[in-house]
C-alpha cells in the first residue's frame, strides 16, 4: 500500500515538474488570473445558450476531456484537476477576445488561449490558405489526395495535447510518426498536412504565444483570422448551402463556452461539391477519419479559411520591334472550344481569365494598332496552363512610313496634287492633303521599294518633268519625299459699265499659246486665265458680245498684253442704255371698274420714253394682265402678248388690247405689267431695258365689280293681294322682288327666275311637265327702283381702307414692297417676260411686219363709274293644281352680256320661299239630325263640312253629292242626281259650312231592300276648279242609314234642329257642348297650321 502511494506521489511530482518546464509559472499564473476575469465578463455578457448545438447537434465530449481520459487513470490528483479547470476557463476568455485593428492576435495552448501578440502593422488579408502559407494553389489537395486511400493519415490514433505541450507529440501520423509514435489531435493533423504540403507553419507559431504551438487550434484561429480571408457561419447547414466551399478548406468550430467541457475543433472540408457533407479530421475516439461534418463540443460559430482554386492564367506581354509596350492589341483566346477576345492594357499587358490546370489554350493576335503589322510567325500559338501565371511575349514589327511633301516655287504647301505611288506590286492614285502631304502608313515594310510620279497638279502650277517622278527604298520609321512645282502667270480681265458696275456674261476672244479662246465674264465681271500662261506670254483680247443694256465701244473693245509671272489685269468699260416706261389701263368705255363678263375689251396705254438709246431703236413690248397684288395668272390661259415696233420719237404711247373673258372675276382686280426689250445690234439679241411691273399700281389696274342680289318671293291670291301662300290652282301669278347691289349705271342686265321644289331639291314641274320661270331685262339706273348711288372709285377705296385697318401691319409690309419696286424699276433680276399665248415675235431679228407707230404722246381721259343699289320685280305665272302642300323656292340669276354674274339659290332661304296650300275637308252627314232613321217618307239630309287651309276672304263653292253604297253611283230621284251646292267666303283658314237638302222622298229608293245607306261626297271649288274633296264610301262620318219600316210610317217633318250622326238630338246643353268642341277643334287646326307655315 505504501509502495502504491509512493508511486502516485512520484508521478504527480514528475507531471508538475514537466509542466513547469514547458510553461513558465508566470504565464500559468497570468493565464489563470486573466481567464478568471474573462470568464466573469462572459458569464455576465452572455447567458448560457445551446442554440448552436440545437442547430447542428454534436456530442458534448470535449477534446480536453478526451485527452485527460487518455493520459491518466480513473483516479487523478486534485491538483491536476484544478489545473484542468484553469485551462478550460482560459478557453472561454479567449473566445471573447477579437482581433484588434492594430493587427494583434491571441496565442493559446490546446484549448488554452494565450497572451496577445502584436504585429508590426496592419496587413491586408491573404486571399486563401496557399497564399498565406506560401505554397502552390494545389499543394494542400495534392497532399491529401495522395493519401485519401491509404493509412498515412487515416486511422492514426487520436492523441490529446495537454499531457505533452511539444507540438511533435500531436503531429505524428501513421505514415511519418515522430519519436512519440503515431498520434494526432485535430490541430496536429491540420498542421502536419500544411507542413508536408510545403507550408510554413512557423507563420502560426511565430505569431502566437498560445500553449502547444502549431498543435493548438486557438493559435490557428487567431493567426488566420488576423491574416487570411474567412467566411463565418452559424451552422453546418448554412455553410453547405452557401455554395462557397472548396475542397481543402480549413473548417474551425468555435465552441460554445456556456456548456461544460467545451472545446474547439478543426479539420479539412473534403467534399467534391460545395454542398458535399464530408470532413477529414482527427476525432476522438475514432482517430483520423473522413466523415460527415461534426464536432464533439457544441459550436457557437464556424470559421472557414478557404483553399485556393487550382487554376492558372495567361500573362501576355505585347511589344514592338523597339521593345515599346503596345496597348489595345486584340487577341483571341480559345480553350475547350470556347473563344474570348481580350486587349492589351496601357502597358502592353494582357491577363486572361483563369483556366483549370492542364487546360490547353490557343492564342492568336487578331488586330494590332496603327503603325504595326501582325507577324504570322509569332502572332499565334498554344500553351498548357500551369498553376499561377503563364508568361507569353509577342512582338510586332513596325511599318515603314512615307511622307511626300508637295510645295510650289515659293515654298507654299500645295493641296490636291495627284500622284501615282507604286508599291507592294500595286498602283495607288492619291492626292496631297491641306498640308501638301501624302502619307503612306501601315502598308510598307522595311526595305520596300516605292516609286512615285506626279500625274496632275493644281490650278496656278504646272508639272516640272525634271522632278515629277522618282523612287526610293523605305526604311522602318519615317521616310520623306519633297517635290516642288513652278507657278503660272495669271491674267484677270475686268469688265465694267460706265458707272463702274461689274458686267457678267460679256463674251471675249482671248488669243494665246497659238489658239483662240471664247470666254464670258463671271458674276463679278471677271475672266481669269489660270494654269495656261507662262512668264512673258502675249495675250490678244477682243470683246465679241456684250450683255443687255450695253453696247460695244469699238475704241475700247480690243487690245493685247504681255503677261508676267503672278497677277496681270485688263479693264474694259461699256456704255449703258436708258429707257422709261409708264402705263394706264381701262376698257373700251374708258372705265377702270367693269363687270365680270364675257367679252370685256381691255386696253393698256403704254408710254415709252427713250432717254438714252440709238435712233429708231428696235423695241419689243411684252405685256401681261395678271392678278393685282400677287401676279398670279388670271383665267385658265396666260394673257401675255408681245408687240414689236420702232421708237421713232423720244416719247410715245403704245396701245395694247385684250378681249378678256372675265367670267367669275367677281371682286378680283387685274393689273397690267409690261417689259420693254431693246434689240441691240452690237449683241444681235433682244435685251430688257425697262419694265413697269408694279403689281399694286392703281393706274394700271382694272377692278371687276361684285354684283350682289337678294330676293323676296310673293304669290298673288284670288283678290290680287301679295301673299306667301297660294291655293293649288291651275293659274297662279306672282313675282320675285330682286334687291341688287353694285350694278354699273347705264349697263344692261337680265334677271332670270326658276322655281324649285324644296322637298326634291329639283326644278319644279307643273302637271304638264313645264318649268316655272320668269325673266326681265333692265338698264341699271333707268329701269326698276334705285335706292342709292356711289362712285365706284370711292367705294373701292373705302373698302380697301377698311381692309387696311384690319390688317395694318400686313399692309405696311406691302407698302414697303411697293416702294422697293418703285425704286428698282430698272432692275433686271425680278420679273422675266412670260411666254405669250397670242402671236409672239421672238426671233434674233425683228419682224418685218411691224406696226406703224401711233402718234399719241399722252394718256386718254378715263370715265367715272357709278355703282347702283335698288330692286326690280321679276313676274311669273304657274300651274299649281298638283302642288298641294309643296314649298316652292325662287332661284334668281343676274347676268349681263350673256354672262351670269350673281345669283341667289338657297333652298332654306325663307324670303325666297312660297308655299302652296293643302286644303282639306272633313264631314258629318245626318238624316233628320241623326245617323240612322226608320222611315219611308220625306227626310232632311244635312252635311256639315269642316275645312282647313283655305284662303280667307275668297269665295268658294261647296258641293255635296249623295251616293248609293249599293250601286256606287249618285242617288237619282225623279231622274235627277241628289246634290246641292252653296257659296261661302271663309273669314279664317279653318271653319265649317253646312249643306242641307230638305223634303227628300226616300221610299222609292228602297226597292226590295229593307234599308239603304247613303254617303255624302263633298267637293270644294274655286271658279269650278277643285281645291279640296272628300269622297270615301268607307268614311262613317259621311254615311247615313235609312231603314224601311214594317208598318207604313207616318210622314215626319224636320224639327228645325241640326242633324246628328247617332242618338237623339239631346238637350240644348248637349248642342252647346258640341259647339264648344267644334270651336276648340277649329282653333287647334288654325294654330297648328300657322306653326307649320312658320316652319
TrEMBL record:
The lineage of its organism: Bacteria, Bacillati, Bacillota, Bacilli, Lactobacillales. Residues 1058-1095 form the Gram-positive cocci surface proteins LPxTG domain. InterPro entries: Ig-like_fold, LPXTG_anchor, TQ. Residues 36-94, 800-858, 1041-1061 are annotated as: Disordered. This is Gram-positive cocci surface proteins LPxTG domain-containing protein. Residues 841-857 have a biased composition (Acidic residues). Keywords: Cell wall, Membrane, Peptidoglycan-anchor, Secreted, Signal, Transmembrane, Transmembrane helix. It comes from the Bacteria. The keyword Transmembrane helix applies.
